Amino acid sequence: MKNLKTFALVLLASVVGLMVALRFSGLPDVAVWRTDKLLEILANLAAAVGFVITARRAPGTDRRWRVLLAVAAVFRLAFCVSYFWVDLSGGSLRAALSSAPAIFTASTLLTLAAVLVLARRNGPTPRRSSSRDRLLFWLDGLIVTSSAVVLSWVTALQPVLMDHERVLSPAILISRPIEFLVLLVILMALSRKRQEERQIAMLLVCMGFFAQICGSWGLGYLIPKGVPFETVRFLADITFVCAGVFYALTPWVPVRSRDSGPRRKAGLADHMHFVAPYLPVLATLMFIGLSTAVGARLSAGETYVELGVVAIVLVRQFVTMVDNERLVRRLWDHQRRLRYQAYHDALTGLPNRIAFREQLERLLAHPGTEPAVLFVDLDDFKMINDRHGHAVGDRVLAGIAARLRAVVRPPDLVARLGGDEFGVILVEPGPRSRDIGAKLLAELSKPYSVDGVEHTVRASVGVASAADAREVEGTADAADQLLRLADSAMYLAKNRGKGTLAVHMAT
Question: Where exactly are the transmembrane stretches of this chain (predicted)?
Fold first, then answer.
């Protein structure tokens, strides 16, 4: 896919560069125009052949949209060949142009049918839209509709009404709205294709059709403005040739199935749902820019309508900014919840082993801080789970956590280390480590009432200080040493008969 993108960019740049070079080469205008028309014929021929070849190998839906676009390419190719032949034979180009609206309308309708086939959704039904989605939908619709009014006026109604010499065919009044309708359907379909299997093909069809109608609309808009015909024809030929190149690349885009492996990296096509509503606005601004560049003047009505479109776009962007702010706030809240869940025990709400260890490491790394650790292990707690069930055991654990919180006050920390084990960090223990341990034993030994039944829980507590951990020789860091010493003191308390307190004493 990366090679295809590179090839497409190089091909487009080469073709446009060649056309511009010929334009300013000093060759006769007729020779330049015929060369441009040959390029357009070759591009449409390549598109028709590509769609036919790939359609023969493609199954089902992929074959149908390729066949439809092949027929559309044949229509455009037939018109280009006939128009080129009339020029070579010295016939009337105006008569040849009179058939353009009908031929291009047929090609447009075939493109519409192909887009509808491409946009068929295979998979689960999309979620129901929210009020925010509906608001953005109506704002996008208003943007597109306003641009449609401007484009229809400047490229169809006004040129035909002001064309007293009848250079333009009145059939444009029919073809222009049809072209805009198809563009609207393409944009709506493209905006829903995010990361789906035919998305790149849809994007190329959109770009090809957009280039095609820009050339068509440019002819209808610039000629009545008095722009020299050769200049208008040159600009239109560039867009027509680019459209043919886009169509010629479309059949060779690999089509992914939904289960064809890992999702590819997001690219331009994945962000087109953000850009799609603004493409008609871009087209309108392009025509206004071209008209002012060649010296044409805008009417007051055109100026006011376009200012209205800009105002709607600003409102739409404001809604998007508010929505993005809300999304960022929700993301921030979600991150805070995830962090809380990562560092806290779900049952008791106490910090977990990870939070306990990190707090201990921070204290030990701070010079002059000598924390102490109390390791609390419930004695024979398994009997409560076995006799009364885990639901009762969980409620007892919640009660134990509440009593530990009541005894241990900030900045000291109490945490559930897992199962029936708890830990306490005393930031500045001094001589109070033993007193706090004794108070914990006294509080935990009181009965716990669950559904009218009292449960008695005893605990063994081991106490160790940072000074003791630093005096122990070994390769483990201070945190590991301190935890190991507190754990050893707790087992010493159990060996003394459970329900007691033991303090590690340095030897």
Answer: 39-55, 67-86, 98-119, 135-155, 167-190, 202-222, 234-253, 274-298
CATH code at position 359 = 3.30.70.270
Question: Does the residue 125 lie in any domain?
Answer: no
Q: How far apart are CA 248 and CA 205, in angstroms?
A: 10
Instruction: Please give the pLDDT value at position 125.
Output: 46
CA distances in angstroms from 484 to 320, 353, 432, 465, listed in the order given: 55, 14, 21, 11
Number of domains in the chain: 2
Q: Which of 9, 10, 34, 12 is nearest to 23 (CA)?
A: 34
Among 333, 364, 383, where does a domain finish?
Answer: 333
Is 494 found in the same domain as 419? Answer: yes
Do 444 and 411 fall within a single domain?
yes
Q: From CA 233, how far away is CA 19, in angstroms rounded?
A: 12
Handedness of CA 279, 113, 251, 214 (dihedral sign): negative
| Mean pLDDT, the chain, whole residue set | 78
**Structure tokens that stand for 214 in this block:** 């820009």
Q: Which domain holds residue 184?
A: 2-120+130-258+266-333
- Sorted by sequence, the CB contacts under 8 Å of residue 5 that are 6+ apart come out as none
C-alpha closest to that of 371 among 380, 363, 379: 363
Nearest-angstrom CA–CA distance, 442 and 271: 64
* Domain assignment present for 340: no
**3-class secondary-structure state, position 350:** coil
Output the six-digit token pair for 439. 């108070």
119, 202 Cβ separation under 8 angstroms: yes
Q: How many residues does the chain have?
A: 507
How much is the average pLDDT of 434-438?
A: 89
Q: Is the dihedral of CA 381, 386, 392, 398 positive or negative?
A: positive
Instruction: Judge contact between 151 and 284, C-beta under 8 A.
Output: yes
| pLDDT band, very low/low/confident/very high, at 327 (cuts 50, 70, 90) | confident
Q: What percent of the chain lies above the pLDDT cut of 70?
A: 71
Higher pLDDT, 436 or 103: 436
pLDDT tops 70 at residue 155:
no
Tell me which DSSP letter residue 389 carries.
Answer: -
Is residue 348 in some structural domain? no
Q: Which helix (H) or strand (E) holds 312?
A: helix 300-343
**Residue in 402, 378, 401, 356 with CA at minimum distance from that of residue 493:** 378
Q: Do residues 295 and 424 both lie within one domain?
A: no
CATH number at residue 180: 1.20.1070
Determine how many CB atoms are found less than 10 A away from the CB of residue 295. Answer: 9
The residue type found at 82 is S
| Residue 87 clears pLDDT 50, i.e. is over it | yes
Final residue of a structural domain among 333, 363, 391: 333
Does residue 20 lie in a domain region?
Answer: yes
